[in-house]
Design goal:
With 144 residues, the protein is of the alpha/beta class. The chain has a single domain, classed as Rossmann fold, CATH 3.40.50. It is 41% helix and 12% strand. It has four helices and four strands. A four-stranded parallel β-sheet has the order 2-1-3-4, with helices on both faces. Helix 1 packs across helix 4 and helix 2 packs across helix 4.
């Protein structure tokens, strides 16, 4: 099976899309092309995202959020929107570049209130939901 290059898109490129790109590379290896961006990039890297990704052995502390218009070439073969707010922009980008588009709506954990432990639990749920969608994608491709 050939793993396509993938671009994960969310609203700000601060939580879900960097998680998606990192988890894609963890599953398929460093040679798998995975990038991430946001419709409007965040000003900083989300520390809770960094924390829960470190639990998986993935260090994203040096990650810098970028906008979709800053992605550049080469275009991805698969564009995955992780946010319903980013769906239209990501779908339009995929259509312009000839990529396949998929929407994987994953809730934004930064909208979760509560204490630190409750917030970290929400970020872990997001991380695990993205990993499960990647595994589901893998299973669907292998069954074809």
């Amino acid at each position: 099976m050939s793993v396509p290059s993938v671009l994960f898109v969310c609203g700000r490129n601060a939580i879900r899309s960097p998680m998606g790109a990192a988890l894609w590379q963890k599953r398929y290896g460093k040679s798998a092309s995975a990038r991430s961006c946001g419709v409007i990039p965040a000003a900083f890297v989300d520390p809770f995202m960094v924390c829960v990704m470190l639990e998986e052995g993935i260090d994203l502390e040096g990650f810098s959020p970028i906008a979709l218009n800053g992605v550049g070439d080469p275009a991805a073969q698969l564009v995955v929107s992780l946010s319903t707010a980013a769906d239209r922009t990501a779908r339009d980008y995929a259509a312009r570049t000839g990529a396949e588009f998929q929407a994987w709506p994953i809730p934004d954990p930064s909208e979760t209130g509560g204490n630190r432990d409750m917030r970290l639990a929400a970020y872990r749920e997001t991380r695990d939901a993205i990993a499960a969608r990647i595994a589901q994608w893998d299973a669907s491709v292998k069954s074809v």
